[in-house]
Amino acid sequence: MTVEVTTLVNGEPFSTLSVHDRGFLYGDGLFETIAVYRGKPLLWDRHVARLLDGARRLGISLPSIADLDGDAKRLCAGVERAVLKIILTRGIGARGYLPASDSSTRIGMRLPWPDFPRDNARAGVSVRICETHLGHNPRLAGIKHLNRLEQVMARSEWSNGYAEGLMLDGDGNVIEGTMSNVFVVVDGGLITPDLRACGVEGVMRAVVLEAAANRGFRCQTRPLTLQDIDAAQELFITNSLIGVWPVRQVANREYPIGPITHKIQEAVRDAHGFERD
Amino acid sequence: MTVEVTTLVNGEPFSTLSVHDRGFLYGDGLFETIAVYRGKPLLWDRHVARLLDGARRLGISLPSIADLDGDAKRLCAGVERAVLKIILTRGIGARGYLPASDSSTRIGMRLPWPDFPRDNARAGVSVRICETHLGHNPRLAGIKHLNRLEQVMARSEWSNGYAEGLMLDGDGNVIEGTMSNVFVVVDGGLITPDLRACGVEGVMRAVVLEAAANRGFRCQTRPLTLQDIDAAQELFITNSLIGVWPVRQVANREYPIGPITHKIQEAVRDAHGFERD
């Protein structure tokens, strides 16, 4: 009998972690959520680069790329479609906030592909505006860290009818979705929110920004208001699992699925081997 | 041979938890840090009440008080001096932020009493002003939740010379220390920061507010500025482990250890059985 390995802790087939790990005690760590298709973690190099960049910003000991590669290979081999989640924490240290640990804990887990409605990428989705705000913290902005209670609280605001919720900061600027980044098309150019004060710099967001530049679309990164959302000709959300989902409706405003959204979807598909259902 | 139990997970003597627990994945949970003295967790009822209040606010299934009491008794029996940490998470749920779990995970751990310098309560401490800010989030403000990266980043700003660092919000208001609440004495009355936008409502803070009211001191809860800190006649910090530590110095400004600080220290000692070293 072969026991199928779905979780690795520091490269070993464990599925538990010490209650003294700072990732658990303080959310002192980072994660990556990665689409797996035909045995390969898609956009792997970008996910690794973001993880290491986050670790540098938080001062967490960097894992070796060989170890990360090894975990990914082991968890993805022979898998048709799944989600690979990589978590890196500051490991076990002394009690208290002082990050005295110079170890880290590396966790890999393979999860089932989510049951997203297959038609979302083609037919578009409805999103809502969340009441839970994102707090400003320039030192943590952009990083995909383990402090995600704001997203949990925002996501708990609805149970069905919406594919996603947009989150604002305390100034009323639109920052991102609970699990995605957001782009609007205004006057034929793209705008995506500035994430210097809060939000997560999604890997798919970076892919879209590059694709847009390569296709000659203007693309601005700047504060985005609800007025911009209202004035947009097209709107879409992105992440590494969903790719690009057109937004058909925000609150009472409806949007067409326009030509720029289609071109961005094509570009992402072409460049990265995503097979849309 | 008896194996001494120092950690309990849902009442069982385990020291690990599932990597799928939302407390780990998202910091989706709460904690209490409690002084143990001569077999008793001090201010236990208040800590339990705050934990349950936080659970209600986050929508986490409440543990039974009997279970919490049982954990505490088991971990504290016969212990002269220690720290009891209680953690409550939303448990294991489906992938994604939606808090669909109706279970919770209850963890208790006994930790060694920290090596705080014994003289801090009498001689006072030096504190610094941190550069890491606290983000505003009214939905999470006051709650002692597991999202503590802001505190970790703030605490990493110094390694020695200071007992604590004060944290400001993005508007420049003083909110709290990395591990403590802060009080100033101005014109013979106490002021402690308003925590409606961010910060943790410490159990010791509540004890001090009551002690102050009982002794007839005026006590205001309002936004606190660096000007207030500068203008203060006395300054002290509080938490459940340190009790009340007078602050002797913030940046270049020095403070006497004044009569009101002494009276608050006495009141806390008298009411709650803390034996100062």
Can you characterise this structure?
2 copies of one chain form a homodimer. In chain A, strand 7 (125-129), helix 5 (149-155) and strand 8 form a beta-alpha-beta unit. The model of chain A has no long low-confidence stretch (mean pLDDT 95). Chain A has 277 residues and is α+β, with helices and mostly antiparallel strands. In chain A, the strands form 2 sheets. In chain A, strands 7, 8, 9, 10, 11, 12, 13, 14 and 15 form a 9-stranded mixed beta sheet that branches. Chain A is globular and about 50 Å long. Chain A is 27% helix and 29% strand. Chain A has 8 helices and 15 strands. The first copy, chain A, has helices at residues 22-26, 44-58, 65-76, 120-123, 149-155, 203-214, 226-231, 259-272, and strands spanning 7-9, 16-18, 29-37, 40-41, 81-89, 105-112, 125-129, 164-168, 174-177, 181-186, 189-193, 219-222, 234-239, 243-250, 253-254. At the A-B interface, strand 2, helix 1, strand 6 and helix 5 of A face strand 2, helix 1, strand 6 and helix 5 of B. Strand 2 (16-18) of chain A pairs antiparallel with strand 2 (16-18) of chain B.
